[in-house]
Every structure is written in structure tokens, then in C-alpha cells.
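PROTEIN DESIGN WORKSHEET
SECTION A - STRUCTURE
LENGTH: 538
C-ALPHA CELLS:
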């Protein structure tokens, strides 16, 4: 229930991967009140909770903002689809559930860039605290008893062993735990599931907190702006005009696309972005919306005559019906599957200090873009550029808080990014054509064997490539004038306002970004509590 005064100690904007964590952890103190705001609905759809619902969720209008970038020169002037979660749990409610921390050196780099407290040794306890790892919990690198359930799926495709055998044949080492001592190598992904169901931050953090009397969740409540009095954030205004006041802090956790948009709508940002839309500049901060980074990807698509690889076809319909029945009975079988179950990391240059390419193997038929699925069976392998040098922007398109922002990642504006990605695509091709797959009678349908030279492969990627949906960096953490937040995630030059989500990353992590976002939520919660105990205002 909403308190009549509509006043809370803390207001958290966004119930996604980081915001859910912050709201839960702050509400552990019964003496404070916490309001968590989510623009979307509750996560009450089977598409969200059944793992194979990932086939539907990227385009689901109810649970996904379904953004697009502006046409990208690097992708032959195509707009690039940018899905973002619009439900309790945020993007953790619609993602592929892969649990990947990134490389340990990524965090050491953050600290070296002037962000004390963010080195690997500093953030690892936050990762461990968040986890209940079914296989590795209680070890040096993994937690037991935390809110977030992490496990290997209870079913694997027959092609998983083939993929790992192919990688071994090509000389790649096997890696049992990408979040352990070393990231290099190929292996199975751990995922955020439990008993055959998705385990998002809604399940892990929001709904347990919702049982507390000091916790208020408001869904279908998009925020129009942060309210500032002088240099202090004092509350928020919802779309429709309602005001909620914050006694202590406003915490913006709306993600790398919406957090900078919300700051800009509030008069915080580069005057050149705000003034054309009639927004009064309350606090000039030129870095808001800059430094956008994402993981570009391109791959090789294979179609098979065999119906053993996962896919949809009339002859397989009876089998799928049996799988559906089994899932209803014991939450096992195909519908409990993690459709991106294996992959790994490699270095395109042995002199590199960490991997620069991620490999993602899909043991089922992947339709040529822009489609996701069509009738047929097959498998595919994608290369992901982990450390892009290109930087983009996010900016408001108007003063309408419900209008989509202008997203311009500027993919491949640094040509070396495409050069490195092509090295990864070529390794994907080597993998998918290994002898172990011949029993499925495969044929390369994308780009096809006629495409061989680097220039031809670049055109294939420019024509068909995209991202794996990991935008970060648009409210960068740092000590310099272009940074938006400091190392304690306080908005520079303002009081009682923080940003806590993937937008604060100075540089993108080498891997999937859900786990790092949860870590950011855990670490921010600790810092907010520390500051409150010390009587230090944000």
C-alpha cells in the first residue's frame, strides 16, 4: 500500500538488475522506508518464468521497451534493435540468463581509472554475497545462501558435447567455471535459474522484500523527472504529475538507456542536449549520455537435415508436446533448457592480457536476421567483441518522458573493432565445420561458403550483425569532468542523488552484464548504508 504522505527515506527508480538489489538491501533496515518504482508491470507471465520464453521476450511489447538505435553506418545504415526489460526484474526478467562476471582485470582497470574501491578484490565479495551457487557455492570464488540462484541447467542439448569436442579438437582449453580463477577457454554457462525456472532479480530480491512493512513497490509507474531543490534531490515526479518525496536519497537505477534520459529530463546533462527541447538546465553535466558501449556480434548460421538439433518442425511437434507435459510435471525437459548453454572466451592475439572475443554457441536453428526463429533445425556460433573502442551516445528526443531516447552507439566508428570481430567470426566458422557435427548433415546458410575473404565477411557482419544487448557506460563513474558519478556513485555536484546500474561502468566488462549489474547494486547498497551510519550525505 502507498503511504498517504507519499514520503519515503529512499526512492529507487527502476526494479531491474541493480535497482531490485538496492531496494532489497536498504529495506533490510526496518527503521527506514524504501519505495521501489517500476515503469512496467509485475513479472507475472509464463514467458518470463519458463526458460524457453526467451524466444518470445525480445520482442514482447508488454515486457520490453523494444528500442532501436538510429541507423548505424557501421551496420550499413541499419538501426540496431535494443531490447530493454519493462517489468519487475527489468532486463533480468527477459535476458538469456547467462551468469558471467567478466574478467577480473576489468575491475582493476576501473580502480586504476580513479575509482577506489572497485578493483577485483573489492567487488568480488559483492558477487559472492549475491549468489547461491548450486555447484560451486562456498568456495573461494562463489557464494552459498545468497538471494540469486546460480546453476547449470537441468537439461543440455545433444550438441553441447559436440561443441566442446570441436573446441578441444581446435586446441581450446576446457573451462569449468568462467567466474573462477581464469576466464579463458570453452565450457558450459551457469545461469540464473532454479528448478527449471528463471531466477531474476524480481524473484531473488523484490518479492522477498515486498513482505517487509517498510518496503513499497509501485508498478506501472514511469517517472517523469527527479525533483531538485537547489543542489539536492528531494523526490520524483511520476508521469501524470504525482509527486513522491525522499527524505534521504533518490537512487536512479533505470539502466544505461533510461537513466541518462531521466537525468536529462530532470535538467541534468549537457545544455546542448537539453535546451533544444525546452528543458531548463538545472545542473550542467556534459558526460550524461556519453560513453555508450555495447557488445557487437556476428556469426555463422548452420541448417541441418537432422532433426536432432533443437528447432521447430511438424515431425517434432509430438515430441514438443511431450516436453511441455514433462515441464508441467517436473520442470524438466526442453522447456527448462538454456538456449545459449555453451561458449567461451579467446584472445585474438596471444600478447593480450585477457580475452577480447566471447564465443556463443546456440544448439538450435537460428533464422537469418532480423527474424529470431523459423521452422527448421540447425545450430549457430557467434563471436562477440568484448572490448570495443567505439563510443556512442544516448540523448532525449523530446521533453516527453514516454518518448524513446535517441540511441547512437556508433558501432565500428573505430575500424579496429570490426577487424577484431572478424577474427572471432572466422574462429566460429572453424568450430561449426568440425567433423563432430557432420552426423547432423549441416549446411552453412549464413553467410555461405562463397563468402571467404575478410572484406566479404565484414560485409556479412555489416549486413546482418547486431549486439547481444549489453549497453553500459552512459553515466560513467570517474574523477574527471566528463564523469557523471564519483566512486560512491553520487552524481557529481549534487546531493542526495545517485545512479546505480550498468550506466556507471567506465568501460564495459568482458562478458554478459547482468551479474556485474547485480554486483553494482550490492556494492552501492553497502556504500549507502556506510554513508548513512557515518552521517555523510550523498
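SECTION B - SEQUENCE
RESIDUE ASSIGNMENT:
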Amino acid at each position: 500500500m502507498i503511504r498517504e504522505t507519499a514520503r519515503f527515506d529512499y526512492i529507487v527508480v527502476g526494479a531491474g538488475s541493480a535497482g531490485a538489489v538496492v531496494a532489497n538491501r536498504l529495506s533490510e533496515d526496518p527503521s527506514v522506508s524504501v519505495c521501489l518504482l517500476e515503469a512496467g508491470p509485475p513479472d507475472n507471465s509464463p514467458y518470463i518464468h519458463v526458460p524457453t520464453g526467451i524466444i518470445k521476450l525480445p520482442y514482447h511489447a508488454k515486457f520490453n521497451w523494444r528500442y532501436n538505435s538510429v541507423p548505424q553506418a557501421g551496420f550499413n545504415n541499419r538501426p540496431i534493435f535494443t531490447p530493454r526489460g519493462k517489468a519487475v526484474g527489468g532486463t533480468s526478467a527477459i535476458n538469456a540468463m547467462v551468469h558471467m562476471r567478466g574478467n577480473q582485470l576489468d575491475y582493476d582497470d576501473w580502480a586504476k581509472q580513479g575509482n577506489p574501491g572497485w578493483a577485483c578484490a573489492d567487488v568480488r565479495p559483492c558477487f559472492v554475497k549475491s549468489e547461491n551457487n548450486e555447484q560451486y557455492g562456498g568456495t573461494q570464488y562463489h557464494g552459498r545462501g545468497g538471494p540469486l540462484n546460480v546453476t547449470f541447467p537441468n537439461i543440455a542439448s545433444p550438441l553441447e558435447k559436440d561443441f566442446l569436442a570441436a573446441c578441444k579438437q581446435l586446441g581450446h582449453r576446457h573451462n569449468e567455471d568462467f567466474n573462477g580463477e581464469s576466464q579463458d577457454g570453452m565450457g558450459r554457462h551457469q545461469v540464473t535459474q532454479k528448478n527449471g525456472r528463471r531466477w531474476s532479480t524480481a524473484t531473488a530480491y523484490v518479492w522477498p522484500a515486498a513482505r517487509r512493512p517498510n518496503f513499497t513497490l509501485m508498478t506501472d509507474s514511469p517517472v517523469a523527472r527527479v525533483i531538485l531543490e537547489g543542489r539536492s534531490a528531494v523526490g520524483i515526479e511520476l508521469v501524470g504529475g504525482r509527486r513522491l518525496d525522499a527524505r534521504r536519497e533518490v537512487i536512479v537505477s533505470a539502466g544505461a538507456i533510461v537513466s541518462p534520459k531521466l537525468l536529462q529530463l530532470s535538467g541534468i546533462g549537457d545544455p546542448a542536449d537539453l535546451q533544444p527541447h525546452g528543458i531548463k538546465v538545472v545542473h550542467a553535466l556534459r558526460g550524461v549520455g556519453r560513453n555508450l558501449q555495447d557488445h557487437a556480434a556476428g556469426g555463422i548460421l548452420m541448417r541441418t537435415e537432422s532433426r536432432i538439433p533443437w528447432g521447430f518442425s511438424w515431425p517434432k511437434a509430438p515430441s514438443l508436446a511431450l516436453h511441455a507435459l514433462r515441464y508441467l510435471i517436473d520442470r524438466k525437459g526442453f522447456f527448462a533448457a538454456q538456449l545459449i548453454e555453451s561458449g567461451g572466451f579467446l584472445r585474438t592475439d596471444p600478447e593480450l592480457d585477457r580475452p577480447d572475443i566471447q564465443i556463443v554457441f546456440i544448439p538450435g536453428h537460428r533464422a537469418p536476421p532480423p527474424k529470431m526463429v523459423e521452422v527448421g533445425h540447425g545450430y549457430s556460433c557467434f563471436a562477440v567483441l568484448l572490448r570495443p573502442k567505439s563510443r556512442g551516445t544516448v540523448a532525449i528526443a523530446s521533453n516527453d518522458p514516454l518518448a524513446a531516447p535517441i540511441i547512437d552507439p556508433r558501432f565500428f566508428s573505430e575500424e579496429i573493432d570490426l577487424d577484431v570481430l572478424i577474427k572471432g567470426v572466422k574462429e566460429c566458422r572453424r568450430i561449426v565445420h568440425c567433423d563432430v557435427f557432420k552426423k547432423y548433415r549441416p549446411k552453412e546458410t549464413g553467410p555461405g561458403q562463397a563468402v571467404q575473404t575478410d572484406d566479404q565477411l565484414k560485409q556479412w557482419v555489416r549486413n546482418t550483425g547486431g549486439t547481444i544487448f549489453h549497453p553500459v557506460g552512459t553515466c560513467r563513474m570517474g574523477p574527471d569532468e566528463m564523469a557523471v558519478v564519483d566512486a560512491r556513485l553520487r552524481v557529481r555536484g549534487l546531493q542526495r542523488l545517485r545512479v546505480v546500474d550498468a550506466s556507471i561502468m567506465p568501460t564495459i566488462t568482458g562478458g554478459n552484464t547482468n551479474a556485474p549489474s547485480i554486483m553494482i547494486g550490492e556494492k552501492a547498497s553497502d556504500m549507502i548504508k556506510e554513508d548513512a551510519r557515518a552521517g555523510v550525505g550523498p
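SECTION C - NOTES
The chain has a mean pLDDT of 95.
The two ends are 28 Å apart (CA to CA).
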